[in-house]
Hints:
The complex is a heterodimer of chains A (235) and B (287). Chain A is an alpha/beta fold. Chain A has helices at 42-50, 72-77, 95-102, 114-120, 122-126, 137-149, 167-175, 177-182, 194-200, 223-231; strands spanning 2-13, 16-27, 31-36, 60-62, 65-66, 80-83, 155-159, 186-191, 203-208, 211-217. The mean pLDDT of chain A is 93. Chain B has a domain at 2-113 and 133-216. Chain B has 11 helices and 2 strands; from the N terminus they run ααααββααααααα.
Amino acid sequence: MILLETKGLTANYGQFRALFGVDVTLAAGETVAIIGANGAGKSTLLRSVTGILRNDTGMVLHRGEPIGAMPAETVMQRGIAMVPEGRKLFPSLSVEENLKIGGQVRKAVGPWTLEAVYDLFPILREKRNVPGTALSGGQQQMVAIGRALMSNPEILLCDEISLGLAPVVIRDIYAAMPRIKASGAAIIVVEQDIGRALSVADRVYCMMEGRVTLSAPAATVSREAIHTAYFGDAA
Amino acid sequence: MIWIDTIVQGILLGGLYALFAAGLSLVFGIMRLVNLAHGDMIIFAAFAILLITGSVGLNPFLAALIAAPLMFGLGWALQRFVLNRVLGKDILPPLLVTFGLSVALQNGLLEAFSADSQRIPAGPLESASVDLGIVTVGWMPLLTFATAIAVIIGLNQIFYRTALGRAFRATSDDPVTASLMGIAPKGIFAIATGLAMVVVTIAALYLGMRANFDPSIGPARLIYAFEAVIIGGLGSLWGTLAGGIIIGVAQTMGAAINPEWQILAGHIAFLIVLLIRPRGLFPRAVD
């Protein structure tokens, strides 16, 4: 079943057009990777889905219903949670409060509780009373992921979760992905790290300059195809 | 001996100023909105309490209990339907709107209640006092101060112990990310202004029982509230109480020297604090 779909999605920042007719689908239980260089429109796509960037022409559908004109809080309450780029923890809140706030409005029953998140990332249990922003980058990323999981989302959107982190830290964070997948959420991973993205994804989209240039199963896609889609024919 | 008495009276007076300021501090802390009509809203609430005590013959404390939810509703609606529309990157539109509201409130109250001075009758409490050994203090100032502390403790409990408070702090930090948590920032703002109006009602109760008021005195209360908030360091409620106490003590000491100096002494104390600590006594680390 298709959970999430964009149809000819366009997006603008003022006069600047960032997306030109993007078609992406996400099925239940599926993990989709969206890769592409800086400025390809990956984050804009996620911002359009979450309602931070509004559009009103029925270009974003959740379970067949248009959600593009809905405010971000309404989209989230439908079960679409976001791990935003740059983590965006709340500095006034402790680690535990950052986690709790993720599940305080949408109280869906599901596998993710405070304890389940602490089991997924045990270091956070030790640091539960520390201000969220006092943690290392990797630990902050764990909080951001845990915070999104706390609402037991149907769809989890991860925006550049490896950005700015050391390889060993990225490995730890990606090690948690299979357990997150197994909990039943459909996932979209937006990444510049192609290898990481392909390792967890069922399907992959590549974007370039606001367009989808490749859509393929992650298991069989060739390096050449990705190279062409990522950099264009000229490269 | 007279100085100890003066200082104690000043500290207690500071409780009243902290009550004036707490609502202002709350709204500023959460949405960076400076409400220039804050003082007039205190006077508005005082008239509301007066109206309820007068028409039904109720005890003023009970009247305030009735007025508080009404004021919450008014504050909620004001934020939801007016102020939310002008909140944005530019701080000028909300300033202009609340300034306009201040003028409208003053004139509306003048039309409805005339320029006559009014007072909320508090019965024997008005003149009752208690001997504390070194000094004798009135029950009313003592009650005002105790209420100010209770209000600050209560607000801090809401802020740091409840899901609503968590949403307040998160929205204050970053409204866009808060909306990704399912929190509607504008709904949070409306609740915050409603809560501030409950504090305004409490401030109005003591203002009205302790002294005469008329529709024109709101802006001066706003100034005291402002000074208390700024001395305290923007956004810290205990700092706001300290700010209120500093102004209160300065005023009573000024008055002890020469009655004409009371108000001026408060403002001078404010200026001195600003000169020494421009960010206030207890500034928040991140701003």
